[in-house]
Amino acid sequence: MSEEKEELQERVMAELENVVDPELGIDIVNLGLIYEIQLDDNDNVTVLMTLTSMGCPLAGTIVSDIKTALQELQEIQEIGEVDVQITFNPPWDKKMMSRYAKLALGVADN
Questions:
Q1: 104 in a domain, yes or no?
Q2: Where would I find the beta strands (DSSP E) of 56-100?
Q3: Are 21 and 33 in contact (CB under 8 A)?
Q4: Nearest to 37 by CA among 27, 47, 26
Q5: pLDDT tens-digit map of 32-65
Q6: 59 beta partners
Q7: What is the pTM (predicted TM-score) of this model?
Q8: Which of 55, 54, 60 is nearest to 84 (CA)?
Q9: Does a structural domain hold residue 105?
Q10: Quick one: angle between helices 3-16 and 59-69, nearest 10?
Q11: Max CA pair span of the chain
């Protein structure tokens, strides 16, 4: 992957840190919900992510918040379309959270 694409992926990830899980109050990046960010040749973005539970009632809200968070990058034409794909493989686990998220939520780090 080119250095430009890597930088763009990092900018997308930085924007996703502004998307907070409404139930937990921690951003989706630190929760470990983002599995992959893919960029195609036209800089369209596919966000592969999971949720903390299969029946998460806020899935639509989180997807909408992701698209809103990336809108600025779209407006300055750094990225194209945004597609959010939700997977439960592998299933989310507390071990996927960053140290910050574990501390904020009082989760033991073991």
A1: no
A2: 82-86
A3: yes
A4: 47
A5: 999 999 999 999 999 999 998 888 888 999 999 9
A6: none
A7: 0.91
A8: 60
A9: no
A10: 130
A11: 43
The DSSP symbol for 104 reads H
- Give me the domain span that covers residue 23: 3-92
- CATH number of domain containing 26: 3.30.300.130
Which residue, chain included where needed, has tokens 């990830």? 13
The distance from CA 69 to its chain's CA centroid, rounded to whole angstroms, is: 10
- Our count of domains for the chain comes to 1
Q: Which parts of the chain are beta strand (E)?
A: 34-39, 45-49, 82-86
Residue 108 within a domain: no
CB atoms within 10 A of CB 61: 14
Structural tokens at position 59:
């899935």
CA distance 41 to 60: 27
Residue 108 pLDDT: 78
Question: Does residue 102 lie within any of the structural domains?
Answer: no
Q: Which residues pair with 49 in a beta bridge?
A: 34, 86
Q: Closest Cα partner for 16 from 2, 33, 4, 1?
A: 33
Dist. CA 110–CA 17, nearest whole Å: 24
